[in-house]
Each structure stands twice: as C-alpha cells, then as structure tokens.
C-alpha cells in the first residue's frame, strides 16, 4: 500500500506538502462527516480480454474520526475517491 504521506501539492484542491500527512474532512448528503488522511494506491484490474490495466495513484482517505455510527463501525475504513477530481478512480477510469 502507498504511504499515508501527502500527495504532491498540485494533486489536491488544497495545499499538501510531503512528508507531512495530507488531512481530509468529508461531509456527506445525510449529514455526518469523516476525517483522516489521504493515501494513494496502484490498482491492477483484469480486462475482458484477460489482460490487465494498471491505474496509478488512485486517491482514498483513511478515516480516523467520524460523526455517524455507521462510519464508526470497525468495518468502515475511510473514503474512496469516486468524484471527478483528477486523482479519483472515476476520473482515472475514464482517461
């Protein structure tokens, strides 16, 4: 797994400088918020022709606090970048 250290300064809408952790605080439509630090990972996905596709630097958040009981459940680990920012999985799958 990638380091929990910050992403490059240009990768996020707010400022993060290595080696300091890059914090996040994410609100949800139903009201609660989760907070923690960002991390990145390289995903290797199988393709329909039995090949693979590598997607580098997919961003996700490792949560350590939340305001909602479902997020405090030990089965919940954080947030996953499904938005349209260039570092999130949905945007990377489309490029």
UniProtKB/TrEMBL annotation:
<comment type="similarity">
    <text>Belongs to the peptidase A1 family.</text>
</comment>
<dbReference type="Pfam" id="PF14543">
    <property type="entry name" value="TAXi_N"/>
</dbReference>
<dbReference type="InterPro" id="IPR021109">
    <property type="entry name" value="Peptidase_aspartic_dom_sf"/>
</dbReference>
<feature type="domain" description="Xylanase inhibitor N-terminal">
    <location>
        <begin position="11"/>
        <end position="94"/>
    </location>
</feature>
<protein>
    <submittedName>
        <fullName>Aspartic peptidase domain containing protein</fullName>
    </submittedName>
</protein>
<dbReference type="InterPro" id="IPR032861">
    <property type="entry name" value="TAXi_N"/>
</dbReference>
């Amino acid at each position: 797994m990638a380091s929990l250290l910050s992403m490059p300064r240009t990768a996020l809408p707010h400022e993060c400088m290595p080696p300091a952790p890059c914090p996040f605080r994410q609100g949800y439509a139903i009201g609660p918020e989760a907070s923690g630090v960002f991390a990145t990972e390289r995903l290797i996905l199988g393709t329909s022709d039995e090949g693979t596709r590598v997607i580098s630097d997919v961003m996700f958040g490792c949560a350590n606090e939340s305001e909602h009981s479902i997020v405090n459940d030990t089965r919940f680990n954080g947030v996953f970048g499904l938005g349209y920012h260039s570092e999130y999985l949905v945007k990377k799958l489309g490029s």
